[in-house]
UniProtKB/TrEMBL annotation:
SUPFAM superfamilies: P-loop containing nucleoside triphosphate hydrolases. Residues 12-58 form the DNA2/NAM7 helicase helicase domain. It comes from Mytilus edulis (Blue mussel). Residues 128-238 form the DNA2/NAM7 helicase-like C-terminal domain. Belongs to the DNA2/NAM7 helicase family. Keywords: ATP-binding, Helicase, Hydrolase, Nucleotide-binding. This is RNA helicase. It comes from the Eukaryota.
Length: 282
């Protein structure tokens, strides 16, 4: 749009400042074309180079640097906005530590604050069953839930399964399509799995890319983990995920908080405390 001939002709010599939003997702030539075409004296770049990068179809072009955005090139001079209002502090904690050097601060906001925490949920780790539980048992409006996956095929399969369960209203999106969005609850399906005997104890980068696929993309991982306001549910093979540096840190971080549960141990049994009898003195 910024290089549209009609727009340029009508605004020639009248543009002083150009603002490029989501600049981290633009290739450098795309950003430079807008700057040169408008001849702006002042340029403001807005984005997050830690999240989605430009989509470059050519592997060779990406290796040569085309997937490095103009924003990322100047990121060392950028001003980081450290206050966030979307995520619950416990959801924000890992992303802040892993991607932003513990600089993110959670401010009080009605978006993530809730007086009704989730109760114990279902006994398997299937995304559709989790969704069904949230809607039927926790009475959460489907509009506030987003099921995510990094694979289109998985998203298609989940949509079919939800329709088979007679759900009409639901959100199922890829991570890329979820960029910029936010929901109260996120169910993240990581898809990839292997039997334990096939998981390498000392995996190489090549092995990880082959067996973990898009999960190794730290930029997509950052996007996925920062969409939820109140609750984040990740479905995956913890043994395989430990092969990834980021996901391994994620599992350790929430494992220490008692948030990593094996499907065989789920749901946790509720402990009923016996009431103590009161003794009356006569």
């Amino acid at each position: 749009m910024a290089t549209n001939p009609k727009l340029l002709k009508g605004t020639r010599g009248r543009i002083f400042q150009i603002i490029i939003d989501e600049c981290g997702m633009c290739t450098e030539p795309e950003s430079m074309a807008a700057i040169i075409a408008t001849r702006a004296k002042q340029v403001i770049l807005i984005g997050d180079h830690k999240q989605l990068r430009p989509i470059v179809m050519s592997t060779e072009a990406a290796k040569l640097g085309l997937e490095t955005s103009l924003f990322e090139r100047y990121a060392h001079e950028a001003t980081l906005l450290t206050s966030q209002y979307r995520m619950h502090p416990e959801i924000c904690a890992f992303a802040s530590e892993q991607f932003y050097s513990n600089k993110l601060k959670t401010e009080r906001s009605y978006l993530w604050m809730t007086n009704i925490p989730l109760r114990t949920w279902i006994n398997t780790n299937v995304p559709v069953k989790i969704f069904k539980h949230l809607v039927d048992e926790e009475l959460i409006d489907p509009e506030y839930i987003n099921i995510m996956s990094q694979y289109n095929a998985q998203c298609t399969a989940i949509r079919k399964a939800l329709k088979a369960e007679k759900f009409i209203k639901f959100n199922v999106n890829t991570v890329v399509a979820s960029q910029g969005g936010e929901w109260d609850y996120i169910i993240m399906s990581l898809v990839r799995s292997l039997p334990n005997y096939r998981i390498e104890p000392n995996p190489t980068l090549g092995w990880c890319k082959q067996n973990l696929g898009f999960i190794t993309d730290e930029h997509q991982t950052n996007v996925a983990l920062t969409r939820a306001r109140k609750g984040l549910i990740v479905v995956g093979n913890s043994e395989l995920l430990m092969c990834s540096k980021v996901w391994g840190s994620f599992i350790n971080h929430y494992g220490r908080r008692g948030c990593v549960v094996d499907k065989e141990e789920f749901p946790p049994k509720r402990i009923h405390k016996k009431k103590k009898r009161k003794c009356r003195k006569e």
